């Protein structure tokens, strides 16, 4: 048993970089510390504990992590500084040598962070505690409310895919997951707390079941029965793991929304092979057609990486034309970043930085065109919108079932309420449709 008296009346600050899964895990860490007497720091206060949950998906992400550590150690002098997350797992010695860092925890340790804090005495040199990637086995549960209305339920962690450009399998270990009965219990608890929407998160959630002998489809069907949760959203799911039976189920589901996020990464088969992806463009296009046949108004977000090694100008043009022809709603565009230890470094052709930028801008413009066209088709229609709290004096906003952002005049009584809205014209910056209550 650890002595928790040292945590009484201590103040903590939390900083998260990266994906929704990281934000969910940080929230769970915060709850863990709150349960032993640590409260979140208020504006203007100095923290006793700093927890920084890092990302390492790109070199820019690494740089942002270092900047965040430096900034927080200056803002909270004397605080006990803990760094965890993907950057901490991949480069623990580098992180532990940053001035002010006391403790670096890897993927296997962060779920039990409280056990490593000791008496919160500052260390002369940072201490790193990690586990080799091949030995990462634990699944740390997390179901946490974000800063808006929705909860994030972690259903899976790790990845077995080893795409040529990616370090995530090295940072998070092999694919593993919670049990369906435990995840259903977490969803019921979220409903009991007043939650109405849950986003399923993970690293490769379609791979769910590796450690329990269950399937992601089994999980979807079980969660759909949870009373009180009005909406479930599936976060990023690999196209080869998005089965027709899942698509067909979502189309007639009680609570799973017509909203998909599917990583494509490249619209060129030659580049997909270099990336070691597990599908081709024909399979990807067939998934989009299947979704749109059953759910014509479904929102489909797509991840694309530009400028990866081997992506010649001809290959990019091929990819661009393929993506332009897809009936999707939004592109999430990432510029390729070289990661130490990845197989992509063996590919000869390197895309110049300026060329990466130009390709990125072209795809972002295409994304904007597709998103605005999708929104425009819904002007004048009625929809159920789950409202989210906003700052005083600012319009409230919420999302339709198919993830269209709608703005209403400010009314705190509508926060976390489902309301029926008629969607009007675009707002001033073109990021939402104006709505009025029906």
Q: How are the elements arranged and paired?
A:
Layout: E1 11-16, H1 20-34, E2 39-40, E3 49-54, H2 59-75, E4 80-85, H3 86-90, H4 92-96, E5 103-105, E6 127-129, E7 143-145, E8 151-154, E9 156-157, H5 168-172, E10 176-177, H6 180-192, E11 197-201, H7 216-223, E12 231-234, H8 244-251, E13 259-265, H9 269-275, H10 281-294, E14 299-306, H11 313-324, E15 330-335, H12 353-376, E16 382-388, E17 396-399, E18 405-408, E19 418-426, E20 433-437
Parallel strand pairs: 1-2, 1-3, 3-4, 4-5, 5-6, 8-11, 11-12, 13-14, 14-15, 18-20
Antiparallel strand pairs: 7-8, 9-10, 16-17, 16-19, 17-18, 19-20
Helix pairs in contact: 6-7, 8-10
Tell me briefly what this model is.
By secondary structure, the protein is of the alpha/beta class. Helix content is 30%, strand content 22%.
Describe the structure.
- The protein is α/β, with parallel strands linked by helices and 438 residues long.
- The chain contains twelve helices and 20 strands.
- The chain has a six-stranded parallel beta sheet with strand order 2-1-3-4-5-6, sandwiched between helices.
- Strand 11, helix 7 (216-223) and strand 12 (231-234) form a beta-alpha-beta unit.
- It is globular and about 60 Å long.
